Amino acid sequence: MSFLYITLGLSALVYAFYYYFTRTFNYWKSRNVPGPEPIPFFGNIKESVLRQKNIGVVIHDIYKAFPNEKVVGLYRMTSPCLLVRDLEIIKHIMIKDFEVFTDRGVDFSKQGLGQNLFHADGETWTALRNRFSPIFTTGKLKNMFYLMNEGADSFVDYVSTECQSRQEFEVHLLLQSYTVSTISACAFGVSYDSLQDKMEALKLVDQVISSPSYIVELDMMYPGLLRSLNLSLFPKVVMKFFENLVDNIITQRNGKPSGRNDFIDLILELREKKEVNSTKFGHSGKTLEITSDVIAAQAFVFYVAGYETSATTMGYMLYQLAMNPDVQKKLTAEIDEVIQANNGQVTYETIKEMKYLNKVFDETLRMYSIVEPLQRKAVREYKVPGTDLTIEKDTIVLVSPRGIHYDEKYYEDPEVFNPERFDPEVAGNRHPCAYLPFGIGQRNCIGMRFGRLQSQLCITKLLSKFQVEPSKNTARNLEVEPHRGIIGPKGGIRLNVIPRKIKS
Ligand code: HEM
């Protein structure tokens, strides 16, 4: 008898769990929105939750599975969200109807590092973007160029020394050492003399950030829970690290710009100015005081967003150059020519001049867009243009740049690395939303120009001295690392880096 009760009890429990973890799964069917069949508890992102596939790859798979649909309904855990495939709808959401989609909708404690530009929403985001956009202008970037240049020179020196004892490098890791030093110099004013210690510390932070945490899934499952419990996405040790770093730097500078023209200087300049209250992003009711917490949060996001994205882009770029010697030859010829014409100097202007370099860079980010998927949240009910669907307030909307960049509709032979796709005439005829490595619209990547510049400068200096070739360990089919939040090569990228025989 007791066996029967136990069996009945267990069955009831299993049923209760099953019911609870599938209770939302009729959401899209009842709205006639097609989509993949969800799995209890995991929804449609099981492989990502189990860290078998990167979330960007999972969303790309869903994109591919519905080639004829404008929108696809899916479930991140049990939460319904909408994948938008149609470029015109994307244009509406990201640009034309931006006022409905100002938020990214990652909902956690917005105190401390949570006040960073990437994760901030609502009026805080508007105020932050208004206040921090001026530090990313071309003029400010030009003033900062010397810091990147120093970083690139010492990086090339380092590679030269290493090349005396070995040929093969894991280039993704190698390039991270350049971007960590550049971003440290540009964001925190950490000078190159003391870089070794700082790099060790920042690497530690990176490990903490990239170690598997299921807090993001918790947010997907219970939107708003983390915020109401005042829980952050970031471990305390990371928060403390950035708060201390920023406090120390501000104290060293007596709270005033030091003349280095780095981000901290620019932020301190902003702090000295009066409030900005109306801008192209509209009126923000909120005035934003630039406290050391706010500075720490931005320093943190510039560091995280700035070093990994560029290092990964350059790593993939070197990989494609090694696999496509003709492209490498053409790029090297351009680099040699431009440097020679500029008396051996690489300046901000020379980088801009290099048309082929820009095409190679763009094609790299077509094949390997790093931040996946793009995300927005509807701040009110919204009728999706060109469909019968009205989405509810708070619905999360996703866009898959990877899906679009590999879609034959927009790019013929998408698996082929072909920089000529970015010939201005060809690219000019493309839909503006068919190329999204930096996102698009008012909430696109604020560091786009910085990322391009630091990557292109480093590649220029590197290829002026070295060539890259596949080694016996180079993966012929690069897989995406499932553990990290952004796209990156699983197991790194192994290449031979060989000093060039420069004709005198
Ligand atoms: C190759 C390099 C980079 C790539 C591919 C990249 C890509 C992206 C993408 C796709 C987004 C989301 C855009 C959207 O949702 O529409 C983004 C946002 C952002 N990126 Fe970048 N990024 C790069 C470099 C940088 C750098 C160097 C910085 C800072 C120094 C930076 C800071 C940010 C910030 C703060 C945001 C959030 C902007 C906002 O929400 O207002 N990124 N980035």
Question: What features would you describe in this structure?
Answer:
Strand 4 and strand 5 form a beta hairpin. Helix 11 crosses helix 13. A four-stranded mixed sheet has the order 1-2-9-6. A three-stranded antiparallel sheet has the order 3-11-10. It is an alpha+beta fold and 504 residues long. It is globular, with a radius of gyration of 24 Å. The site of protoporphyrin IX containing FE has 26 residues, from helix 13 and helix 19.
List the helices and strands and how they pair.
Blueprint: H1 2-20, H2 46-49, H3 55-65, E1 71-76, E2 79-84, H4 87-96, H5 122-132, H6 138-163, E3 168-170, H7 171-188, H8 195-210, H9 215-221, H10 225-228, H11 236-252, H12 263-272, E4 278-279, E5 282-283, H13 292-323, H14 325-341, H15 348-353, H16 355-367, E6 374-377, E7 382-383, E8 390-391, E9 396-399, H17 401-405, H18 424-428, H19 448-463, E10 466-470, E11 494-499
Parallel strand pairs: 2-9
Antiparallel strand pairs: 1-2, 3-11, 4-5, 6-9, 7-8, 10-11
